[in-house]
Amino acid sequence: MRRPAHYFIFFFLSALVCCIFLWSNYHFASWDAPSVKKKYEIHKIHPYRNKSGKITKFIATIKYNDSAKDIPFPLEQVKQLNNSKSIEFELHKGVFGFDVYKEKRLY
Predict the structure, then answer these.
(1) How many Å apart are CA 104 and CA 5, to the nearest integer?
(2) pLDDT > 80? residue 2
(3) How many Cα neighbours within 13 Å face the side chain of 1?
(4) CA-CA-CA-CA torsion for 31, 33, 39, 40, nearest 10 degrees?
(5) Distance from CA of residue 73 to its chain's centroid?
(6) Global confidence as pTM
(7) How many C-alpha atoms does 4 have within 13 Å on its Cβ side?
(8) What is the DSSP string of 14-82?
């Protein structure tokens, strides 16, 4: 029978491996290579509330590679977000081939 400490150690090591993978994909990305700019249509805009119910930011939902992705925006950009129809990303390739975005713009 396994002790609870084994589960904690397994969880901790799994999280550590995941963080190292994501960190290295971002930090060793091909930043010197030319970036690719892609636009994605905004499907839905909704507020994000914290535990006390206060709106802290707004979330724009886009369709990226056949899955819904939530993109956070600060409260200062609400008017610009409501007037926008799409988001443009400046994408780079990460060291493991996953897309890394450097900048986002509203259109």
Answers:
(1) 42
(2) no
(3) 2
(4) -60
(5) 11
(6) 0.78
(7) 0
(8) HHHHHHHHHHHHHHTS-SSSPPEEEEEEEEEEEEEE-TTS-EEEEEEEEEETTEEEEEEEEGGGHHHHH
